[in-house]
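Quick one from the shared queue. A colleague (R.T.) flagged Purple acid phosphatase as missing a structural entry in our internal table.

Convert sequence to C-alpha cells.
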Amino acid sequence: MVFPLRLFCAVAIAGFIFVDGGGVSIPSTLDGPFEPVTVPFDESLRGNAVDLPDSDPRVKRRVKGFEPEQISISLSANYHSVWISWITGESQIGYNIKPLDPKTVASVVRYGMIRQPLTHEATGYSLVYNQLYPFEGLQNYTSGIIHHVRLTGLNPNTLYYYRCGDPSRQAWSKVDSFKTMPVSGPRNYPDRIAVVGDLGLTYNTTTTISHLISNKPDLVLLVGDVTYANLYLTNGTGSDCYSCSFPQSPIHETYQPRWDYWGRFMQNLVSKVPIMVVEGNHEIEEQARGQTFAAYSSRFAFPSEESGSSSTFYYSFDAGGIHFIMLGAYIAYNKSEDQYKWLERDLANVDRSKTPWLVATWHPPWYSSYKAHYREVECMRVAMEELLYSYGVDIVFNGHVHAYERSNRVYNYTLDPCGPVYITVGDGGNREKMAIKHADDPGQCPEPSTTPDEYMGGFCATNFTSGPAAGKFCWDQQPDFSALRESSFGHGILEVKNETWALWTWYRNQDSYSKVGDQIYIVRQPTKCPVHQQRIARWFAAS
C-alpha cells in the first residue's frame, strides 16, 4: 500500500501517475488488485464520541418568531434547479402538543446573481410532522413549519445569492449564496465532493465537519444515519447503546429535538453547499400506527419526482458528468418491487457520453469485512448487484459500519477489473463509537442466523461455495476484496478529473487538515468494461 504525500501536479499517462513538486506517486486502480492492508487500531481514538448537549450554543435556537433557521440546499435532478429548505416557528415536545399551521407562514425565496437586488422569486410548500407514541409516560413531538422551495431556470456553474422567509411577516433570513452544478458533459465536474456517513452530533462530528469544510466541497453526500435521535428516550435521556440501556421501553423511542440541534449545527455548511442524503437505519424511528422515517422524509427535499421516483428513499441526480443513484436499503428492493423497476428505468436512461461516471450510494455495505453488520444486507446484494454491474457502476459509497474500508474492484465476491470500487465511510463521528472487530479475526465470525437485519427481513447469507472462503461463512484472513481498512473517524473527498480518472482521498480526524489517510486514483476503462447498452450493441453486431 502506498501512502502518498501531497499532490502538487499530476499527469496520468498510460496508467502511471507522474508527480511534480517532490510528492510521492499516487496508486491507481490500474495497479490493483492490491494486497489487503489493515491499519492497526489506536485505542486512544475511541474517546470524544459524546453528543453535544442542548446547552451548546451551536445547537441552540438563535432566531426570533418566524425567522428562518436550519436552512439547507439540495440538488434537483440536474444543474438548472435546486431546493432551498428551512424551518420557522418552534417545535414542541410534551404531553399536550399543538401542531403549528403551515398555512400561516409563506414559503418564499428571493434570489439572483448579484447580492442586491434579488430580482427573482419562487414559492414552495410547507408542512409539519409529528412523532407520536401511544404509551403512557412517553412525550410526543411536533416540528416547526418545514419549508421546501424549488428554484428553476438556473444557469450552470453559477453563483447565486438568496434569502428565504415570509415577506408578509418581514421574517427573512440573511442573504446567503450557493453555486450550481456544471452542465452534464464528459469534461465538466464539480471540483470536490465530500462523502460522509453515520454523522450524528458528537464532538467527533464537529471535528469531521470542520475538516470537511476546510476542503471546500461543492457538494456533500451523507450516506445515511443523520442525527442518532433514536439513541434517546422522549425525556432526553440518551445512551451509546439503546437496547442495552432501555430494554423495557415499549417502543424504540426518539428525542426529536436532536434533529433541530443537528439542523442548526449544520446550517453554516449546508446553507451554502448542497447536501444529498439517503436514509439509514437510525432514521427508521417507528411511531404510532407503524409510521416510520417521518423526520427524514419531512426535513429534507429530494429530487424524487424530477428523477421519476415516487419515494424519498431512492432517487437520482446529475452533478456535471456524474450520475448519482441513491438507493434505499430499508424499502423493498426485489425485482418485482417499485424500487427495482425504477432503478432499471433510471439506468437505461443514463447517457454515458454526457455522464460518464456512474456512482451509487446506499447505507449498509454489501462488501465489508468488519464483524459489525457483517453480510447483513446480503438479500439486497443478491437482488441488485447484477443489474448495477451490467450498467457499469464505477463507485459505490456506503456507511453503517463505523469504520473506513476501501475495496478492490469486485463483483459477486470475486475480484473483477470491471466491478465497482466499494468505499465504506461510516466513520463520521457518531456516539456509538467505532467498529474495531473484523469477521476474520479469531473467534469473531458471527453466527449466520444473527446477521440479517430484522427490519429488512430475509436470509440470504449462506456459506461461500467457491474462492478462498469456500465452505465457510467468514474468511480466515482479511478478504482479498478488502484493499484497506482502518478504524478511525473521518470523511472523504472525490475529485473527478476527466471522463476516466477520479481521485479519492480519505482524511482522518486525528490528523492535520491536509494530511492524507488514504488516496487512490479510480480509473474507468470503458473500452475494457462495456456497459449494458454497449454489450447489447456488440451482441447484435456479432449475430
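The first strand starts at residue 9 and ends at 13.
Helices lie at 203-214, 242-245, 257-270, 294-299, 338-348, 378-390, 532-542.
Added to the table.
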